[in-house]
Amino acid sequence: MLNLSQRKAVETTEGPLRILAGAGTGKTHTLVSRIGYLIEMLKVEPHKILALTFTNKAARELNHRLTELKFPGVEACTFHALAARILRHYWKTDFAILGKKEQEEVLFGILYPNEKKELRIILSDLELIDFRKPKSSLAPERMEIILRDYRAALKKLNALDFTGLLTKLLDLWEEDEGILEKCQALFSYILVDEYQDVNGPQIQIVQKLADKHRNLCVVGDPDQTIYSWRGSDPKSLADFPLNYPDCALVSLTENYRNPPRILKGAEELIGHNPERLPKPLQALALKQGDISLWKSVSESEQNETILHLLQNYLGSHDAMHTADILDVKRDEEFLKFGDIAILYRTQAEGKRIAAELAKRGYPYQLSAPEVFWERKEVMEILMHLDQLRFLESFPEGIKFSDWMRERIDHYVSLGKFTDSQVTHMHMLVPHAMAYDAQPIQDALFDFLDEARTEQDIDNLVESDKINLLTLHSAKGLEFPVTMIVGLEEGNLPGKKMGEDAELLAEERRLLYVGMTRATRDLHLFFCTQKFAEPTFPSRFLEEIGYSNMIFGKLPETTVRSIHRKEIRKAQMKLF
Amino acid sequence: MFIADLHIHSKYSRACSRDLDLPHLEAWAKLKGIDLISTGDFTYPAWFKDLHEQLEERDPGVFALRSEFKNKGDAPVFPSCDRDIRFILSTEVSLIYKKNDRVRKVHLVILAPNLATVAKINLALDKIGNIKSDGRPILGLDSKILLKLLLDISPDIQLIPAHIWTPHFSVFGANSGFDSIEECFEELSPHICALETGLSSDPAMNWRLSQLDKYVLVSNSDAHSPRKLGREATVFDCARDYPSILNALRHNHSKVAGTIEFFPEEGKYHADGLRDEQLRLTPEETRKNNYKSPKTGKKITVGVDHRVSLLADRPMGFKPATARAVWYIIPLTEIIGEVLDVGGASKRVGELYFKLLERIGPEFFILKDAPIAQIAKVHPMVAEAIDRMRKGNVIKEAGYDGEFGIIKLFRPNELVEKKQMKLL
């Protein structure tokens, strides 16, 4: 089933086409239908169709959908995978592709000792050198030298990093027109998903590849550009008709995902961004559902509010006597853990919420695990610490992080480790400091627990958990109940973002992405005080429009018990 | 014959007494007269460490407290109650998940044959969820998938659905359970062999379902404090080791002599009714009234007995050939409380309780086996009360809609009259 604009998007097969697909308008469905239409109606051979995606995950999902619908053989892959394939075929077969970890190792060998603490920032500076100003504290002259040495080191290793894959491909086509022509002949229809996220070299690659047949279809939502800090060009969709003046334009504006009142708030928010492409979304879902705003005097009150809401949605989960109170006379169906997402701007906020959920026994899944935790030496030291839990008698009067530093040093002295491995192990110490207030054994348990959650991405057995996600990683997902925390000035929008119009627009898009995840209820939270400093409600709240929200209010008894707890905590601090 | 309590909690479970450590467990098992007691909570890392340090394996799969940890608690020690206590490794998990479009909440007891197997279970569950924040971990996992995972670790692990009729958190629970074991465990159902009746049901209620004939019924305390150990229990007639117990549960149900039970009417949700209107109804009456109060038209809160009657295919009072023995008990402190006409937690109750134990023996012995004349020597009215309880001569007013039921051994004023008789 396709609506009118979806149909147009599917059947406009020849020539350049830009599809603006707003949140929840059935983008993937339309893309897959378009591929099906090419194969079934136009009898295009599947291998002549190329579908490019921004992430491996998106490519996997698209391939999965295509196989399900019995359209296998279509090429759905990322830009990097495509570039690697072409390079191996036409350039040379034996080059290596460096992952983040290897890139860091190469860079580690180049940097001066005092620069090593900025290793990650420098690396991202190198990757994005064509797109943005460097963020590290190094002088431009020094950066140039590092870049030169880094490139030389890659060359010596016969290796390319991710950016290198793209630029090398463009170079190869530049040098040898014949190869470009052969590549152009590979595909007769090209689709690019999430076109708002592509960067300069990626745009050049598709333009060159589609140059002959010009059957290029790009899909995206400029209001969901949230990766310009990674080199994405927010104007890529707007500029498309400039490069292809004859292109067809389709806008998918019928939203099937969000309840009308939630979509209205989200649309009013994004309406404050300048220079938008017009794309007024229309809510077709006949669903009840509101934006609730929760004001808290502190982060702990906010967390109590979250726990209260969870109880309402999930029912009781631990003690039978609460079950009696909560579940007995209830007609509404309960949700499962995975139906709920809590979204936040920074990982630190997420970790604090995770700690609260853990205390109450709720299962949860933290997003965006860093590759750091999967390093061999990091896993090794964690395993060592894990064994110590039961063997060691724990000293008193020493801070957990200091104790851990000692243990790491001891462990290092027993084996052979490279300098970089030792540094990585020591990078655990700052994580340990978060637990310094606890006795060492308790701290160790909690610390290892956290570490394991970080690593835990590929469970064989899937179990249902509450989703804790950064706003960035929530993109493309949807949840019946979505909660967004931290709507304060200085947090969302972030401090620096508030002063720069472009960064501010991106923060607004980020919140827009978060809001449009909710298929049933959306809860927004802000605190009037954080870490004993007063905070102010995010300007975005006003932009969403207070008239589009209902003001959340906890039952009197709950409020009283929260305040009692707060007072008790404050009193404890006095002693 | 030995008395077993296969389902308890440690101090690491939510809302549990701080006294629930191994020395206290042993001391109270002696006072209660339990021969084999569950460790509970074996998934919790600190508790698992305690099990390692404080227990030693005596016979296959059963453990004794190491001598240096004995009598460490503050519980009284009476020669009359002394006995050899064994521990068995078990834990409870709480599963919350969606199946066939409904959220299910199911509690399951896991029995494990040895500490090495427990370590493997903990490793596997640790990957799936958080086992470090609660002695009874909450997992978003399907019951069947958990069973599969356990059987893959060891075929000697036994899963027992816990307190199967509790409205929340059980396989047959009215609010978030299933209508049959098969609906819950599908093709793995044959691996389920025993069901825990829980405080909210007695074997007679379960006998009304022919689908349950193939299971052996067990009873446990699910205790959250040492004093509640063994409030319900299972009597085994086999060797006191893991393989024999497993054999009794799986193959030779006659090795389960029977269960020690509460009167289920005492539960807060046994009958149907409305608390506001002091209206108590039987399942039949509720159906006749179309689930609405005849007075106000309000929706009636249905109880456990109603849920049983919906799944039952036999009349009340039916007893299948497979039925095992049942001993109904009232906790001794409650009996004393009624006799003395004071609350069960009062000091006078405690004094008489320990006096009875010291003179006669463990609580189960007093309730179940001790000659009435022997009890009468310590306290004649308590002896009279226990005699009535053993004969089933009990006044029961079923609980409903959150109102506790009332189980009494004497008519109102009967005790006063007796006292006056004495005076005359």
Provide a quick synopsis of the model.
Chain A has 23 helices and 19 strands. Chain A is of the alpha/beta class and 575 residues long. The longest helix of chain A has 19 residues.
Characterise this structure.
The complex is a heterodimer of chains A (575) and B (424). In chain A, α1 (4-11) crosses α2 (27-40) and α16 packs antiparallel against α20 (440-455). In chain A, 48% of the residues lie in helices and 14% in strands. Chain A has 23 helices and 19 strands. By secondary structure, chain A is of the alpha/beta class. Chain B has 424 residues and is of the alpha/beta class. Chain B has two domains: 2-265, TIM Barrel (Alpha-Beta Barrel); 331-424, no CATH class. Chain B has 15 helices and 17 strands. Chain B has helices spanning 22-32, 45-54, 115-128, 143-153, 181-185, 203-207, 242-250, 283-288, 304-311, 332-340, 347-360, 363-369, 372-378, 380-390, 414-423; strands at residues 2-5, 36-38, 55-59, 62-65, 86-99, 102-112, 138-139, 158-161, 194-196, 216-218, 233-236, 256-261, 272-274, 279-281, 325-328, 395-397, 406-408. In chain B, the strands form four sheets. In chain B, strands 1, 2, 3, 4, 5, 6, 7, 8, 11, 12 and 15 form an eleven-stranded mixed sheet that branches. In chain B, strands 9-10 form a two-stranded parallel ribbon. In chain B, α10 (332-340) crosses α11 (347-360) and α13 (372-378) runs antiparallel to α14. The longest helix of chain B has 14 residues, at 115-128. The chains are: A alpha/beta (575), B alpha/beta (424). The interface between A and B is large, with 38 and 41 residues.
Q: Which outline of chain B best applies? A: globular
> What distance lies between the first and last C-alpha atoms of chain B, to the nearest angstrom?
46 Å
| Assembly level | heterodimer
Tell me the overall shape of chain A: globular
Going by helix content, strand content and strand pairing, the class of chain A is alpha/beta
Number of separate helices of chain B: 15
Radius of gyration of chain A: 26 Å
Number of continuous helical runs of chain A: 23
User: What is the residue-averaged pLDDT of chain B?
Assistant: 92
Helix content class of chain A: 40-55%
Proper CATH architecture of the largest domain in chain B: Alpha-Beta Barrel
What is the CATH top level name of the largest domain in chain B? Alpha Beta
Q: Radius of gyration of chain B, rounded?
A: 22 Å
Calculate the mean pLDDT score of chain A and round it. 86
Helix content of chain B: 25-40%
End-to-end CA span of chain A: 67 Å
In the predicted model, the low-confidence regions of chain B spanning at least 5 consecutive residues are none
β-strand amount of chain B: 15-25%
Overall structural class of chain B, as computed from helix and strand content, comes to alpha/beta
